[in-house]
Amino acid sequence: MWEVLQASTGAVSSLSSQCGGQSEAIAQCPPPYTGVFSEWWDTVEISVWEGNGTSDCFIEAMSVKDSKPNLSASQATEITARLFGLTVSSVRPLPSYDDQNFHVVSSEGGQYVLKVMNSADSQNLTLLEVQTHTMNFLWQRGLPAQTAVPTVTGQLMSLEEMDCGFGLQKYLVRLLTFLPGTIMAKVTCTPQLLYEAGRTAATMDTILLQMEHPHLSALQRESFIWNLGSVPLLERFLPVLDGDPMQEVVKNVIEQYKIHVEPKLSSFRKCINHGDFNDHNVLVEADGQSGYRISGILDFGDMSSGRLVFELAITIMYMMIESPRPLQMGGPVLAGWESVLPVNSEERDALYLLVMSRFCQSLVLARHAVLQQPENEEYLMTTAKTGIRLLRLLWDTGKDQVEKIWFNGAAEFSRSIQKTGTEN
């Protein structure tokens, strides 16, 4: 079974050691468990797997001080030239949550994204290998995902030891293809585009059901805080909302999740979740027929084993963010999803709480991340600022009324699609 423990820096026996260039400490887990975690983590989640008479402790870290890379443009240029044999004509930073991204233009004429993972995630090479494989798998099957460019030695990833101001640490480096388009957050989301978003998310999950890899088990991130199966883990981070009236709403959502969703998780169909299909991770290009078409799916860092309805809930939640009529957004997204994967009765009943749960994850974890990276507050709170208002709207409107808006809207939009024949 899985047991999730909590350790803090106050329950640590200091140990002078070096592992991967990082100073570490030993957590005092209950015997016979021993967990190792970096001493600068304020809080870590220690997942303990028991089976066959053995146990292993490993970390699912949330937000880690000093693990985010801080490369200069000149360092990014040097890495691109040395690892990938390209002459860089221009390089500029791109927004990122806990990694570092650069838009790179080469003198040879190509455009790329240099992605440097944070030092904590860079330790999980197996998971990153699966993520890289997934992008290529989707691209080969017609979805617009980025793919990794091989290094001069033919590798898709390179672990580089660098000093970004915190001492020598190891960072996983990849060069990804650059996809054209504008992030969805910057365009007007028509019902047709929302329909395409729902259909694309469902198509992606359907394709991933066919994916094989020797290390797919790396996606079994049971204590991964962003997985919608891990919502109760938010409770220990609720102090970041002390003094905020939304804390009570978040507490209530978590409690409702534990009562109405958690007991039914086994009835939801399993899949591999992208986990972050949001308006900043979906690119669009102008299209004469429907206004815009989806031209790119970005950021597979939150991939994990999950449930189909999780992906649907995440997609609806993020599509609500930029809309002047947020409750109405669910209808077209749901119609697009169900054109590929109709929801079953259990999934339908849980959708409202799952969407609210994602808003809670976004709000609580963004507040926590700001404590770790106050200089990055504007980016970290991008979704949460609007999400606070939308979470309150969903809570105040209530399950019955929201479901009526979503499911009636989906049926109405599906009928209009069939009538006009606008589905591609």
Write the layout of secondary structure elements.
Elements: E1 2-8, E2 12-19, E3 22-27, E4 35-38, E5 43-51, E6 54-60, H1 73-84, E7 88-94, E8 100-106, E9 111-116, H2 125-140, E10 158-163, E11 168-177, E12 182-183, H3 191-208, H4 246-260, E13 270-273, E14 282-287, E15 291-297, E16 304-307, H5 308-320, H6 330-338, H7 345-372, H8 377-380, H9 382-397, H10 399-420
Helix pairs in contact: 3-5, 3-6, 4-7, 5-6, 5-7, 6-10, 7-9
Q: Which features does this protein show?
A:
globular; 424 residues; single chain; 5-stranded antiparallel beta sheet; 3-stranded antiparallel beta sheet; alpha+beta; 24% strand; 36% helix
